[in-house]
Amino acid sequence: MKKLFPIILISILAMQSLQAQGDSTEYEHRPFQFTFLFPPLSTNGAKNAHIVNDVSLNLFIGVSGGVEAFEAATFINIDQYYVDGVQLAGFGNTVGGHVSGAQLAGFYNVTGRDVQGVQGAGFVNVAGRDVNGLQGAGFVNVAGSHMKGAQAAGFVNVAGDSLEGFQGAGFINIAGASKKGIQAASFGNVAGGGRTYFQGAGFFNVAEEVKGAQLAGFINVAGNVKGTQLAGLLNICDSIDGVPLAFISVVKKNGYRKFGFNISETQYANLTFKMGVKHLYNIYSFGKPFGPGSRWMFGGGLGTEFDLTEKMMLNIEGTVHQELWIGNMVNPYFLYIDRLNLYNSLKFLFGWNMDNKVDIHIGPTFNVSVAHTNPDMGQLDWNEIAPYSFYNQTNNTYKQTNVQMWVGLQGSISF
User: Which of 52, 110, 288, 351 has the CA that lies 20 to 30 A from 323?
Assistant: First the structure.
């Protein structure tokens, strides 16, 4: 692999040298040329770099002014001015000007200016300016300016100025800006500015404006979002017209953030923090249920808020809590969970806005507890969460899972 890069570099330098010679030199046109091994062993002789051919065939390495129909080489093609047509090489193609048609090579394609059509290479494609069409490479695609169409690479795609269309990479996509762009990568996508319709990545997405969706396994970051943010851990945006869904969703300008204190028939003290947007917010909760002083609960869930009047609202929330023992002398650890003991609740809370900062809620809840109850497993005596129930059933498996259902009432105040 190390020996291949000098070859590419030499071909690029040769192209640049020819370009410098030909900037002020007129070239002539011929229907055909053939190069035996390498220049100047060509039917065009020493003038080959200044002659444009309809058809150019090169046994090993060929240098021409340009091509207007077809060119092929077993190893490398180098054209100073342009290629209009099809260029095939076993190893690489280098063109100082534009390409209109197709460049196909086993290893690399390099074009100094625009590409109108197709670049396909086993390793790398590089266009100095715009690409209007397709770049497909096993490793890297680079469009120096505007990319319109598709980029597909096994590792990295880069659009230096803007992306209009699609980028797909095995690792990362980068666009200086986006115009109706779509990015999909196994690791990350970056759109420095403009509007992106979709970003999907296994780890992270970054965009200035999203109109559509951002989907990431770990984190999404955006300016303005009109649509959906979905991440495995964290969403961050300046503002959103839609919904964010992640373990943590931070919306800076029009986000929903409230601290709350709740009481119910199950917990006589519960603290919550809610964040996201009114249509969909996360709930983080920690509370003290009835029972021994060392018995606590932690959990979370999702909620949504509807405005009923200017001062009244309805919050529908679903939460899940797990029993936690803190500082109990019979437990081997300060923080200890000795069994599955869940308190699941669906809440319909009617609220009143007392002023711009304080809300009061009260409403019915439907609750389900699920607990492993087998005393042979060394569990503590106090294991029931439900204070009463209209349904109480224990199965006969080893862990003897108990399920209870009841209807309750919750009151809260939030800031």
Answer: 351
